[in-house]
Design goal:
This protein is of the alpha+beta class. It has helices at about 1-25, 90-95, 155, 185-190; strands spanning about 30-35, 40-45, 55-60, 65-70, 75-85, 100-110, 110-115, 120, 125-130, 150, 165, 170-175, 210, 215-220.
């Protein structure tokens, strides 16, 4: 009798493991990072649970891409890019504070959250788009929406108090962006990219959500 109970218990545990693995597979997200710019760029990715590891990929112009599988949980994920094909994590770390960011948290209570941030700077046109939407999501406003930030001429855009970063990111610093309130400097970013964060507490109408199990693309120069 004891042996049969043990067998049943073991079978139940194995079934629970199989179901858990199946659910993880169903809810796992993939992110297709694409470069539609006319030049080679390096795209980098990291997350809060990655132990600080930064992975960078050289993406050829006109639709070079890299698909990353982030699983069902990717807390504090960040994707950014910079000109050139070095794909060097050191360059990537140096470029990050000079770049606009695709910020993503995958698997937070059944939802994925994402936004574009110009809080530190802007350097490359950027878009986040759900490519497959998990049930019961629908594309409506901030629900499974597609934020975009594209500035055609960074040199004419970047005016005082903001200033050009130079290498490695070749962006425009948002001087007041890390602060808690909007300023004349942050308004330059807000007016150019209304879908994106322009200062640190610019939460209203800038955080998008889609059900976990959705897949995404992050596109440079959309």
């Amino acid at each position: 009798m004891k042996n049969s109970v043990r067998i049943v218990t073991l079978q139940a545990l194995l079934m629970a493991v199989v179901i858990s693995l199946a659910m993880d597979s169903v809810n796992a997200a993939s992110i297709n990072i694409r470069n539609q710019c006319s030049e080679t760029i390096s795209a980098c990715a990291t997350c809060n649970s990655c132990g600080g590891q930064v992975n960078c990929y050289a993406l050829a112009p006109y639709n070079g891409f890299q698909v990353i599988d982030v699983g069902p949980n990717w807390p504090g994920g960040v994707i950014w890019g910079y000109p050139g094909g070095s794909a060097d994590p050191t360059d990537g770390n140096n470029a990050k504070p000079q770049a606009d960011l695709a910020e993503m948290t995958i698997g937070a209570g059944g939802e994925d959250y994402y936004d574009i941030s110009n809080v530190n700077a802007y350097n490359l046109p950027l878009l986040i788009n759900p490519t497959t939407i998990a049930s019961p999501g629908q594309r409506q406003g901030l629900e499974c929406g597609t934020p975009i930030c594209s500035i055609s001429n960074i040199y004419s855009f970047c005016q005082s108090p903001n200033y050009l970063t130079g290498a490695v990111g070749y962006g425009c610093y948002n001087v007041d962006g890390p602060g808690p309130v909007a300023t004349a400097g942050t308004e330059q970013f807000a007016n150019a990219c209304p879908d994106a964060y322009s200062y640190s507490q610019d939460d209203a109408n800038h955080v998008y959500a889609c059900p976990t199990g959705s897949n995404y693309e992050v596109v440079f120069c959309p």
